[in-house]
Amino acid sequence: MTARRLTRVADLVSQGLVEPEKEAALARVAERFSVAITPQMVDLLDPADPDDPIARQFLPTEAEFVTTPEERGDPIGDDRCSPVKGIVHRYPDRVLLKPTHLCPVYCRFCFRREQVGPEGQTLTESELEAALSYIRSHPEIWEVILSGGDPLLLSPRRMGRIVQSLDKIDHLGAIRIHSRVPVVDPGRITPGLLKALDTGKALFVVLHANHPQEFSEGARQAIGRLVSAGIPLLSQTVLLRGVNDDAETLTALFRRLVEMRVKPYYLHHGDLARGTSHFRTGIEEGQGLMRALRGAVSGLCQPTYVLDLPGGHGKVPIGPNYLARGKGPGKWRVEDPFGATHDYPPAAPEKGG
Ligand SMILES: *Cc1c(COP(=O)(O)O)cnc(C)c1O
Ligand code: SF4
């Protein structure tokens, strides 16, 4: 295994991960969008395979120079919903808290690719305190979602202070942490970090994973440590052309997650981030994949297929529809998972009155 995380195109060349003749062009890509890959991910990829699903996710390519007119710097409109630095408050009952903009890896399709990276901002102590005050002073906030960047890159000490501060806020019912760390840098899931995550609130971890090949033995063990610490685990996956846009890969991924006690939560349609059109599928392809899974694969393995609307209008399910109006008031026509349709009766009239 290479010993260190690779963050420069020159390092990718010297490790034989990208061809030397591409170095100059890819260095220009890296000026715009941060590059990093962990030794664990390097170990799992085959540089000789042009379709390698790990390489595609983390190694920069010239395709990132292509920007389409509908792509945006802030594809899901985080900025419009940010009342104080580090907070995104889009829905009444929950906020994102983004303590850092650093990630262990930089995914080439990242929806926040123009915000994350070493040049991105990590909250100072006083900015973090202001973000926490915002949460304290808004009793309608029921859940805090630590996002970023990757919050599990924070030191256990800093993470512990954040979790303890949130623990003391009575109106909070849940804390959620969105992270790629357990999969791509599993050694960070230490006893110290697990202790920092100990709280009386319901604390969930949502793993980001896109391909069954991402799970090293180390990742499996790190996920096991989180589960053993009593932390419920969910997952989110981005639908990516050439990585996981086929039913076999998604089935293997979601089964693998469930086998590790991780419940697939969301399958995200690709966001309109700049330079990512080569990764985006059509919505009809995503719906076709969800149809292929329904009925054929355990319900435990079915995430909700969602679109985060450009402009900050929120997430909505965009999965296939099985329901249509039938002939007559209140009647329905319902398609079953095997393709046949059936009538379904209206509700009985309300009694009394
Ligand atoms: C995705 C997101 C959430 C979480 O949405 P859920 O549907 O609860 O998982 C919350 N706030 C913002 C701003 C988001 O982008
Ligand atoms: S880990 Fe998440 S935030 Fe970080 S680069 Fe990947 S998609 Fe973006």
Order of adjacent strands in the largest pleated sheet: 1-2-3-4-5-6-7-8-9
Query: What is the typical, i.e. mean, pLDDT?
Result: 96
CATH structural fold name of the largest domain: TIM Barrel
Rounded to the nearest angstrom, the radius of gyration is 22 Å
- By CATH reckoning, the class of the largest domain would read Alpha Beta
How much helix is in the residues? Answer: 25-40%
Q: How does the major sheet shape up?
A: 9 strands, mixed
Count of DSSP strands: 12
Which architecture of the largest domain does the CATH hierarchy give at level 2?
Alpha-Beta Barrel
What is the straight-line distance between the termini? Answer: 74 Å
Bound molecules: pyridoxal-5'-phosphate, iron/sulfur cluster
Assign the structural class, choosing from mainly alpha, mainly beta, alpha/beta, alpha+beta, or little secondary structure: alpha/beta
Q: Count of helices? A: 11
**Structurally, how many domains make up the residues?**
3
Binned strand content: 15-25%
